[in-house]
Amino acid sequence: MSFYQNGVATGALTALGETWSGAFGVGLNENVCEAYVWLCLNWIPGDEIFIFGFSRGAFTARALSGLIFHLGIIDRGNLGEFHSIYDAYTKRAVKPNHDQTWKSKQKELQDGLGCRDLDIVKVKVVGVWDTVKSLGLPENERARLWNKAFGWDRKHAFHDAHTCENVENAFQALALDEKRAAFSPTLWSLPSSTAKTNLQQCWFPGAHTDVGGSYPDAQRFDSSDLSLLWMIRQCRPFLAFNNKRLEKELEPDDALLWWGAQPLHNSYTFQFYLNGQEIRRPGQYLKKQKKQDGHEVGPFNESVHASVRLRLLRAQMLESQKKDGGRVVETEMMGLREEGTDKLSDKYDCKAMAGFQLELIESNKSEKRYKWVKKMDGGENIELMEDQLGEDELKMLDEGVRKLLDGPVGDVKLGFPELHAAETGSKTPGMMNKFWGYLGYS
């Protein structure tokens, strides 16, 4: 059985309504509760639970898995008690004096409400694309002042979107080129290095919607198709997919621009100037979370998709073409059709990957393994493995793309330049931040 709901800030809303709804998380609690009640009405022991979502829907999916962890599955005959239980659950994190109320409600769940044993209610997979908190405000001091003044954050502070112990597999596709501060990514971390959850998080080229949903002008094998294939690969051990339909919808001969060559979009448009921009930091959120939470956390298990390397290889070939006086490189060598070359950029300027250099770490006749390395101050390095392509992805590769990906890298230096001094700050203040500054809140 399956259940689908529109995400936060979708549905029959005007553009202004969608912006307002998305910014303040309108509908998040309702969506979580609706999905949970559906589970209580339909779940029977032995059923496996799979939860998927994109953007704020991804946060909803993670909050739902957290609710299942804390409540289990309430017997359908006792759902009349759900609202009082949920009320205690929502207050447990933000009102310490309600801790005892929540503990008594938990005892009710186990003793008198027919709640299934928490150990039985496992979530097989939580698969998400670029999780964004439903509050939709940047994580900075001025935003915290807004939260404190208006109480916006308190409405959602109780949601548990961590990798809870009941989640067996957690998969997330992340966008490298999203710059909106209000769309700061919410990565998972394991609660400890010994946690049993299979956590995989992979970075893809593109903005938030490039990776998670695609734009109206999207073509075959853009980042959303690649992230879909990646998610399917993660879930294949647990779900059966319609391979014929998949191959039909992702037929390589239908593509104008081959695998991972489509233009990326700039999501930092005028309506988002209010909150400023923030460069994403792959491999650096672990240190940030340790600092914020004040305790040790387990690994994030981040990797970088092979399409990042492919974009750099193509850009490098086009740049050499210019330096050689316009000598034409065969389009097949770049995995392109002739008519698609004018749409291909000769540069992939990914500020999130600034300072990362590609290293070949293993090579044999059957495969090569790569990692991205960034040297930090103090001699510390950040290392992110390149994600290994699976059978579904390899089937979709044109011969030209294969040649690029499998070609020699030893004599080809690939990497991203360090940011200029003016760009080194990860956050650029927007109009709203400047407004607070003018009021003296610097």
Automatic annotation (TrEMBL):
- Domain T6SS Phospholipase effector Tle1-like catalytic residue range list: 2-234
A Pfam family assignment: T6SS_Tle1-like_cat
Checking InterPro entries in the record gives: Tle1-like_cat
Its name, as the record gives it, is T6SS Phospholipase effector Tle1-like catalytic domain-containing protein
